[in-house]
Design brief:
7 helices; 11 strands; three-stranded mixed β-sheet; binds 2-acetamido-2-deoxy-beta-D-glucopyranose; TIM Barrel; globular
Length: 260
């Protein structure tokens, strides 16, 4: 899990190991300097839970995780907005949706690091209600290349989390690493597949094709990636991203489906 930029919210006025109560003066200019940046949106900080850990950070309905709940509530109150939390990552990307699973998740191999065959059941999505202040970026599995299963996943998430609590969808995770594992997806194939998937998912949600927001793919920052077919790691990233049209001015890059 990464919870970014939470610490500064709580420590903005107190620096140093030994806090003293000596006063300081701050003199901002009376007028906005010409070189000032645009105002930073209150939703700027990004938050994320790894799919396989979310159950522990959320808790369940009867036993919610009060610490995470307090954190998210505090962020919401300080920023006067709904924090956007992305739930996903590699454990999500390699997971399978199982409509018959009664537990939220099942990890067949709990001792092997990042789960690669996690199963996710419908009740997983009920845990999202434990953070009523949040909106979500819902990451959808792609690695195993089963669009039918991913559509079941997205439809269940949409129904149980509620469309109004979903800020955006995301498809896959770090696809620039897929090539390393033998998947036959070069830059062009991935981009085309991404377009096909986003269209098919919106359609399955009975949503108009342009009503859904898709977050740009999250790419691996590993510099040692060598398996990306059709080019080196940097060219792969540039190619894929250049095919996606960014919209909006917040940190979440909004991509309209079908822009390539
Ligand atoms: C700073 O002020 C607060 C509130 O008056 C007081 O509780 C605290 O002990 C003071 N801290 C120090 C280091 O003087
Ligand atoms: C912005 O302008 C102020 C006043 O001219 C200057 O002191 C400051 O260094 C500038 N900041 C940047 C980031 O250029
Ligand atoms: C909720 O979580 C608690 C603590 O982990 C567990 O004992 C309980 O069985 C869970 N309840 C449900 C309905 O899963
Ligand atoms: C879920 O359970 C039903 C009824 O037992 C069964 O027909 C179906 O094949 C199961 N589906 C999966 C994905 O296991
Ligand atoms: C793909 O997903 C569908 C729907 O869950 C399932 O019926 C099918 O068996 C899966 N295909 C493979 C190859 O796993
Ligand atoms: C995308 O969809 C089109 C139309 O169904 C199909 O011809 C094409 O093969 C798909 N591309 C990929 C990479 O799956
Ligand atoms: C979309 O509409 C069809 C036809 O009315 C329905 O069968 C299906 O369940 C709906 N899907 C969702 C995700 O609401």
């Amino acid at each position: 899990m990464r919870l970014l930029l939470i610490a500064p919210l709580f420590s903005a006025v107190s620096y140093g190991a030994q806090a003293t109560n000596s006063s300081i003066s701050i003199c901002p200019p009376a007028t906005k300097p010409a070189n000032a940046s645009d105002a930073i949106p209150a939703t700027f900080p990004g938050y994320a839970f790894e799919e396989s850990s979310f159950v522990y950070y959320a808790g369940n309905k009867t036993n919610p995780n009060r610490i995470s709940q307090n954190l998210i509530r505090a962020v919401s109150q300080k920023t006067k907005t709904r924090p956007v939390i992305r739930v996903g990552g590699t454990s999500l990307d390699r997971a399978t949706y199982d409509p018959n699973l009664s537990d939220p998740i099942y990890n067949p191999d709990p001792n092997s690091g990042i789960p690669t065959h996690l199963k996710i059941g419908p009740s997983f999505f009920d845990l999202f209600a434990n953070f009523p202040e949040a909106k979500y970026v819902i990451d959808i599995p792609m690695y195993h290349d089963n669009l039918s299963n991913s559509i079941l996943f997205a439809a269940s998430a949409n129904k149980r989390i509620g469309a109004s609590n979903i800020y955006a969808w995301e498809i896959g995770n770090e696809p620039d690493n897929y090539g390393n594992t033998g998947a036959d997806w070069n830059e062009k194939q991935f981009s085309e597949k991404w377009g096909n998937w986003s269209k098919a998912i919106s359609k399955a949600l009975n949503a108009s094709l342009d009503s859904q927001t898709y977050q740009a793919v999250a790419l691996s920052s590993q510099t040692g990636v060598t398996g990306t077919p059709g080019g080196d790691a940097d060219s792969w990233k540039m190619y894929v991203l250049s095919l996606m049209v960014f919209q909006g001015d917040t940190y979440q890059k909004k991509i309209q489906r079908g822009d390539f």
